[in-house]
Amino acid sequence: MIFLSLFTTFFLIGLFGFGGGYGMLSLIQTEIVIRHHWLSSAEFTNIVAISQMTPGPIGINSATYCGYTVIHNSGMGIGLSVLGSAVATFAITLPSFILMIVISKMLMKYMKTAAVQSIFSGLRPAVVGLLAAATLLLLNTDNFSSPINNPWQFYISIALFIATFAGTMWLKINPIKMICYAAFAGLVLLY
After folding, report:
1. Which residues have CB under 8 Å from 71's CB, separation 6+?
2. Which of these, 92, 85, 51, lies nearest to 71 by C-alpha position?
3. Where are the alpha helices (DSSP H) in the chain?
4. CA distance to 104, 123, 143, per residue, from 117 (Å)
5. What angle is formed at CA 32 by the lines to CA 34 and CA 54, rounded to 5 degrees?
6. CA 143, 130, 17, 59 torsion: positive or negative?
7. Which of 45, 48, 87, 107 has most Cβ atoms within 10 angstroms of its Cβ?
């Protein structure tokens, strides 16, 4: 019975958890700690801390750890605790999975229509604008210093920025390799 409750709870969290993983945390806490009393506030805080330290989305990581801890605290053993983590993880990702299948089916069906083509034509500049805005937000004194405060760091940062841009744009160097090269150059030149 607890597995069904766990599935239902995390399915609803996945269905209504807008705003990404951090937006889901308040829903998870409300359901797990306050409504069902499966975990204490201290246990949930520890789960959030562990979820932030491990790779992957924090909402899914939290669901995985909550599912494990809920079943473990009920005294069902480690084997069923792993099943609890699998149930919670599956339940929280299932709504997104279903939604993506429905959207992709509709997209494949209506891809060639004028309305969908117009939507994509409008989205392209918006995406470019969002990427440009994110880039401009990173062009600050925290990342590049300034010619007055620390000219050496400023000019090295600008040179690395230009070299990375040119390397990926015109020389077609793999972006992951460029990140590694820039990190090494920054370590050697700025440390």
Report:
1. 2, 3, 6, 80, 81, 83, 84, 85
2. 85
3. 2-16, 20-29, 41-53, 58-73, 78-110, 114-138, 141-144, 151-169, 175-190
4. 15, 10, 38
5. 130
6. negative
7. 87
Q: pLDDT tens digits for 3-45? A: 999 999 999 999 988 767 777 888 899 999 999 999 998 899 8
Nearest C-alpha neighbor of 32 from the set 76, 1, 2: 2
Report how far residue 107's alpha carbon sits from residue 113's, in angstroms, rounded to the nearest whole number: 10
d(CA 39, CA 48): 12
Dihedral sign (CA 151, 156, 159, 160): negative
Say what the pTM is: 0.62
pLDDT in tens, 150-187: 888 889 888 988 999 999 999 999 988 998 898 898 88
State the Cα–Cα distance between residues 20 and 41, nearest whole angstrom. 21
Task: Report yes or no: 64 and 56 within 8 Å, Cβ to Cβ.
Answer: no
Other Cβ atoms closer than 10 A to 33: 18
